[in-house]
Structures are given as structure tokens and as C-alpha cells.
Specification:
Length: 491
């Protein structure tokens, strides 16, 4: 990590937070909070941070050391020991937050990582043919200076759980975080979901279709995982999820529903069965017929890849559309099956969201580890969506220090100019930062960094009609065309 010298402080700035191994968080008495833009450490300014809600959790980062800015010396310093007011001394861990819904991480937590290798035992169990292909990819990536995840060192630090570790600090008015708001959150407030009547609604809905495996899965997703889109199915409103895919065509480093590369628990487990077209269609049609602003989304976050079993979802859409033309059927996909996207559109799907972490082919491959498709298929899916008249968005898994390159802005601009992209959903990439920062190409291979706010501002300047957000758009609302391109407000 490169440390950059800053100017001496004269005004109060957010102070560094450190965590004890028991999870207690303390303010550092002399050091300021520091920011990590993905390449360099920076001194925090007022415009870099916003207040964090008092009830939003902070997270300790085990195995890391917090780094702060010392205004007396004008240097960045890693804190290796910390003594509390009551005389307790410990080796502190860095502190972070995961962004609340609707918010985007602008800076990483400034931290030192004790090492940057991780076990990958499951990768070795994968099919030989995939391994051979990845070996070829790896050779190519190594030539570019990409670090390839391929071995477990004896002294490997356990990977951090899959969250988007964001810089936080302390002020006299409370905790602040290096975030910005990128969407309106009216439909996603916790009080709309975690209500006492959810159990009754689940029971009543299951009673209408008791043998439906999709509904049974959704009851677990809503009740155990507290998934908002699953809950919406039972509240019969807005966007609902329709989980259908037990497997995937990729093996992402940060997959939230599988543990292919990290010995860390994932928050949700994939479903373990393949539902039939008819039971999928019953769930979709019931929702689209009744819900206000109805949308039903395949592949909504923590299942596998819905287009992997094309005939099943194509038939389910056809059956659902035979019941109702109302509402939006949305395909969230990794883009590996462009012809399945085309077939889904032909039978009535009208929105497409493609998940992608970058428009750099090698870095895409390094992160997604595709089994049987290529980066070109992903791009082709967007052009198929355009040709079929779908609303096209991308789920852009953002990483400050990589996403905000001018080169990425140029690559995205090409898609917008071609009419293949109407919206960018900014999603915070959840992956171990100690590993991932070393996995990306070195500084010499990155262009100018704009910062995450600068990235959005530059795209907005070039394409005033390109929309930004963090959730699927409210396409079924009459007033959707009037929504501003950047509903989060001022950057
Ligand atoms: S594409 Fe999605 S489901 Fe598949 S491995 Fe990646 S994150 Fe997981
Ligand atoms: S997003 Fe995940 S938790 Fe929600 S319905 Fe889909 S599979 Fe279930």
C-alpha cells in the first residue's frame, strides 16, 4: 500500500475508530479517520463522508490493522497496539460498515492486511476441463500482472466475510461513513418488511398453493433470510423474486450464495431443487395480477443463474403471460446465455439486468471465473436485450480504485451510445478487500481514477438520460419516465 503525505490539521475531522477482538469499538485519541481510494491513502474531508444512522451496525475486520492519519506528523500510521482509558491493551482491528440499502461505497476502509492469500480448496474439485481453461486464462492474466487465486498458504489469513467494507469515523455528532446515496429508498425501509403480520401472510399464501416448491422456498427467503423481494411476494406488492436456479455458469469470488473460493460463510444458501415451469408460472402470474407496480424478477441476488436452465424459465414465462400481460418480468442474469435472453423476451419478459464487475475482459474473467461462456456472451446479452426491446440495465459491482477509471467510463459510454444500456445499478462488490486489491492489475495498468462520485458525474455529463440507482427500476409505475436520472439527489 502506498502512503501519501498530507497537510497538517487545523480543524476537527472525523477520528479513527478501532475495534478490540471482543468487538468493542473505540475512538483513537489522536489519529484522524483515513480513506483508501483503492490505490492510495487520503486524508478525509467533510465532503467525503455522511452521517451513518445510529442503528446501523459497524463491523470489525479481524486480521487487519486500522490505519489513521496523524495530523501532528502529516503521515498515515497503522495502529498495532491500543490502550483504552481504563488501561486495557490489545492489538486492534480496523472498523468498517456495510453500506445501507441505496448507498454506494465511495472509499474503502484504510487498513493493513497481514497477508493476502486465501484457501481455495473447492476450486480444485471442479471439473478438469474447466480447470484447464482457467489455467489458460490464468496464464494470460498473469502476463497482465493479475494475481490469480490458486493456492492455500499455511499461514493464510482467514478470508473476511463477504461485505463491502466502507471507511467509517467518529465525530462529536456521531459516526460518519464514506458513502453517497444513489437511489430513493421509500420502498425499502425496514419498517415496511419486518412486521408482525408476515408469518400470517406466508401461511395464507401457502394455503392457496400448498405444493408449490417456489412458494415454499420464498417462505424461507422471507422468513429466515429476511429477503425484501421474497416478502413482497407475500405482501403482494412491487417487485417480487422468483428463485429458480440451484446452479450457476460462473464461480464468482464474491458469490453470495455459494462458497467456491473463500472459507467464509455466505449469508444465504441456494435453493436445492429445480422447480417446474408450472409452479414458477403460478407464482409469477399471481403476483403480476394483483400487485401495485408489479414486477417479478428471476435471479434476484442469491440463487444460481436463472438462464442456465433456459427451457424451464422460457416455458414458465410463456405460461404466466398466458394468464396476464400485466407488469414487468425481469431477467437478472450474469449474461452467459444471450439466446435464452432472446427466447425469454419472445415469450413476454420485458426487462434485463446483467451482472458485471468491469468491462475489462481479463478482470471480468478473473472475478467471475466463467465455466462455459465468455465475456463476449455477456456483452452480446445486452445487445440482444436492446434488439428485443427490453429495458436494459447492468448490476455494476463497483470497486473504488477500479470501477472509477476513465477507461471504464469510455467502455460504458460505448454501450450507451449503441442503445444497449439504459440504467446502471451501482452495487457494492462484497469481497475480501485484502485479497481483491492484490488481485487487480497494478497501478501502471489503471488509467486516471475519477473517484466513485466523479465516475457517476462523468457518465451523467456524457449521457444525461442514462439512469443510476441501486435497485431495479420502478418500470411498472406510470410516473417512472419522470424520475430523475440520478434519484439519490446531488452528488
Ligand atoms: S453469477 Fe451470481 S450466482 Fe453465479 S457465481 Fe456469480 S454471484 Fe454467484
Ligand atoms: S434473492 Fe435470495 S433470499 Fe431473496 S428470494 Fe431470491 S433466493 Fe430467496
Amino acid at each position: 500500500m502506498i502512503l501519501r503525505m498530507g497537510k497538517k490539521s487545523t480543524s476537527e475531522r472525523p477520528r479513527l475508530l478501532v475495534a478490540a477482538p471482543d468487538g468493542a469499538v473505540f475512538e483513537h485519541p489522536t489519529l484522524e479517520m483515513a480513506l483508501d481510494n483503492g490505490l492510495d491513502l487520503l486524508r478525509v474531508t467533510q465532503k467525503d463522508v455522511i452521517p451513518l444512522a445510529a442503528d446501523w451496525d459497524l463491523m470489525a475486520m479481524p486480521g487487519t490493522r486500522p490505519v489513521g492519519y496523524d495530523p501532528q506528523t502529516g503521515t498515515f500510521t497503522a495502529v498495532t497496539t491500543f490502550t483504552t482509558d481504563d488501561g486495557r491493551t490489545f492489538e486492534p482491528w480496523a472498523v468498517a460498515c456495510h453500506p445501507p440499502p441505496g448507498y454506494v461505497r465511495a472509499f474503502h476502509t484504510a487498513a493493513e492486511y497481514t497477508d493476502a492469500t486465501h484457501p481455495d480448496t473447492k476450486l480444485r474439485q471442479q471439473a478438469e476441463e474447466i480447470a484447464a481453461r482457467r489455467a489458460r486464462d490464468a496464464e494470460k492474466m498473469k502476463k497482465r500482472g493479475l494475481h490469480v487465486l490458486d493456492s492455500a498458504g499455511d499461514d493464510a489469513r482467514p478470508g473476511l466475510p463477504l461485505w463491502a467494507y466502507t471507511a467509517v469515523g467518529a465525530t462529536s455528532k456521531g459516526t460518519v461513513a464514506a458513502l453517497f446515496l444513489a437511489d430513493e429508498t421509500t420502498r425499502w425501509s425496514p419498517e415496511l418488511f419486518y412486521k408482525g403480520d408476515l408469518k400470517d401472510r406466508i401461511r395464507d399464501r401457502l394455503a392457496l398453493d400448498p405444493d408449490n416448491q417456489v412458494l415454499q422456498q420464498l417462505s424461507q427467503c422471507a422468513g429466515d433470510y429476511l429477503c425484501c423481494c421474497a416478502s413482497n411476494v407475500f405482501y403482494e406488492r412491487w417487485e417480487g423474486a422468483v428463485p429458480v436456479a440451484p446452479a450457476c455458469t460462473a464461480a464468482c469470488l464474491g458469490c453470495l450464495s455459494k462458497e467456491p473460493a473463500w472459507n467464509t460463510p455466505t449469508p444465504q444458501k441456494r435453493l436445492k431443487f429445480q422447480p417446474t415451469p408450472d409452479e414458477i408460472a403460478r407464482v409469477i402470474a399471481h403476483h403480476l395480477e394483483r400487485a401495485p407496480e408489479p414486477m417479478m424478477s428471476f435471479g434476484q441476488g442469491c440463487e444460481g443463474e436463472p438462464t442456465m436452465n433456459g427451457p424451464v424459465i422460457i416455458e414458465s414465462i410463456r405460461l404466466a403471460r398466458a394468464r396476464t400481460p400485466r407488469g414487468i418480468i425481469n431477467i437478472n442474469t450474469n449474461g452467459s446465455r444471450p439466446e435464452t435472453v432472446r427466447a425469454c423476451a419472445q415469450v413476454g419478459a420485458n426487462a434485463l439486468r446483467v451482472s458485471i464487475n468491469t468491462f475489462d475482459r481479463d478482470v471480468y474473467t478473473m472475478y467471475y471465473r466463467p465455466a462455459d461462456y465468455t465475456f463476449d456472451d455477456v456483452i452480446r446479452s445486452l445487445y440482444v436485450g436492446r434488439d428485443m426491446g427490453m429495458h436494459n440495465s447492468i448490476n455494476l459491482l463497483i470497486w473504488p480504485g477500479w470501477t472509477d477509471q476513465l477507461a471504464e467510463v469510455d467502455r460504458i459510454s460505448k454501450l450507451v451510445d449503441d442503445g444497449a444500456l439504459q440504467m446502471i445499478q451501482l452495487r457494492n462488490l462484497c469481497v475480501d478487500p485484502g485479497y481483491f486489491r492484490t488481485a487487480l492489475p497494478p497501478r501502471e495498468q489503471r488509467g486516471m481514477l475519477l473517484g466513485m462520485k466523479g465516475f457517476v458525474a462523468e457518465l451523467h455529463r456524457r449521457h444525461p438520460k442514462l439512469r443510476f440507482g441501486t435497485f431495479n427500476p420502478r418500470l411498472a409505475a406510470d410516473w417512472w419516465p419522470e424520475v430523475p436520472a440520478f434519484p439519490g439527489g446531488r452528488l
